[in-house]
Amino acid sequence: MTDIAIIGSGPAGFTAALYASRAGLNVTLFEGAQPGGQLTITTEVENYPGFEHGVMGPELMEIFRKQAHRFGAVSKYETISNVDLSKRPFVLTNERGEETVAKAVIVSTGATAKLLGADGESEYMGFGVSACATCDGFFFRGLNVFVVGGGDTAMEEANYLTRFAESVTIVHRREEFRASKIMLERAKANPKITFMLNTTVDEYIGVTNDNGIKKLTHLRLRNTLTNETSNVLADGAFVAIGHQPNTSLFTGLIDMDDVGYIVTKGKGTATNIEGVFACGDAQDSVYRQAITAAGSGCMAAIDAERWLEAKHELLVTSY
Ligand code: NDP
Fold first, then answer.
1. In terms of CB atoms within 10 Å, which of 83, 187, 194, 293 comes out highest?
2. Of 200, 190, 138, 134, whose CA–CA distance to 167 is shortest?
3. CA of 160 to the centre of ligand 1 (A)
4. Which residue has its alpha carbon closest to ligand 1 atom 28?
5. DSSP assignment string, the chain
6. Could you tell me the domains of the chain?
7. Nearest residue CA, atom 22 of ligand 1?
């Protein structure tokens, strides 16, 4: 039994854990498949307030974790694979079938990088195709790589890859960019980066050697205006086209929008299920920043704490 179960361990989850545990509540946080969340696969975070000179993503998350633990929050390196939110207290089941009973639940499961779904993508994933430059960039020293996308992630990944790669080509499906001016300008100013606009990847092409090891060698590109296709040599392709909220566990249980972002009520973090709150990228399709995730984690903890306070008698008698 725990007062608050928090599912997800990014800035939202750990901030919720910090606030709730500091308020004297018993907090259990489930770290999930990617402890620390998306910031653990990024490099330098320059825009998290309080770090004048920037901070490395994994280091920032370790600080989040330690700060929450300092006030008694407990992290479990487990993934919740089933939830029963039909009655209170709620029951959360991990991948080993072990149950945790919680008076309130905070969902902070974040989001995951989207893929193109083009032919060969899954086949060459890890063999030249990647969705994480900071994870895999090192393997492309002196090679020619492509980054797909026109947002901040694509610009950031392209810049990062120039530390290793000989050349980086940004492939974007139209002429206007979603990326912020500063990130776009930084990419444009980088002599190793070139742009291919109105272009998308139709197919990832490669070879398999005698030992059965696959390797990406080409991309089949398509001009989105003329539909003309061409093959280009490519040692690596990084897909950087946005993210999908990690909310499938709650499909049919918690109200979501068409894309899968959890819908919260009004200005708060309450979901359609009383006692279940949502924060961070799992419910934010607009801002998706570490600082906004942390802010909404704080809100979820306060909302949950107030709700528990109001409902405490009811919960105690119903156990
Ligand atoms: P965005 O949604 O902002 O951009 C996604 C890009 O991928 C768009 O250019 C989009 O094209 C393109 N795209 C989407 N689907 C496809 C597809 N099927 N085929 C080809 N191209 C596709 O996602 P980001 O991950 O870049 O950014 C998300 C949020 O995170 C933003 O708010 C961003 O500011 C923030 N961020 C901030 C960073 C920082 O400040 N350091 C770093 C990284 C992200 P189109 O424009 O045509 O739709």
1. 293
2. 190
3. 16
4. 242
5. -EEEEEE--SHHHHHHHHHHHHTT--EEEE--SSTTGGGGG--EE--STT-TT-EEHHHHHHHHHHHHHHTT-EEE---EEEEE-SSSSEEEEETTS-EEEEEEEEE---EEE-----BTHHHHBTTTEES-HHHHGGGGTT-EEEEE-SSHHHHHHHHHHTTT-SEEEEE-SSSS--S-HHHHHHHHH-TTEEEE-SEEEEEEEEEE-TTS-EEEEEEEEEETTT--EEEEE-SEEEE-S-EEES-GGGTTTS-B-TTSPBP--TTS-B-SSTTEEE-GGGT-SS---HHHHHHHHHHHHHHHHHHHHHHHHHHHHH-
6. 2-113+243-318 (3.50.50.60), 129-239 (3.50.50.60)
7. 241
Kindly give the distance from the C-alpha atom of residue 242 to the centroid of ligand 1, in angstroms, as a whole number: 5
In this prediction the pTM is 0.78
174 lines ligand 1 (CB under 6 A): yes
Which of 3, 84, 119, 132 does the annotation list as catalytic? 132
Residue 316, pLDDT > 50, answer no
For 254-287, what is each residue's pLDDT tens digit?
Answer: 999 999 999 999 999 999 999 999 999 999 988 8
Active site (annotated) includes residue 132: yes
When pLDDT is averaged across residues 303-314 and rounded to a whole number, the result is 85
Give yes or no for residue 305 having a pLDDT over 70: yes
- Average pLDDT, integer, range 288-311: 95
pLDDT tens, 183-217? 999 999 999 999 999 999 999 999 999 999 999 99
Distance between Cα 203 and ligand 1 center (Å): 21
CA 174 / ligand 1 centre spacing (Å): 13
pLDDT at residue 38 in the model: 87
For 192, residues 6+ apart whose C-beta sits below 8 A from its C-beta are 162, 165, 166, 167, 168
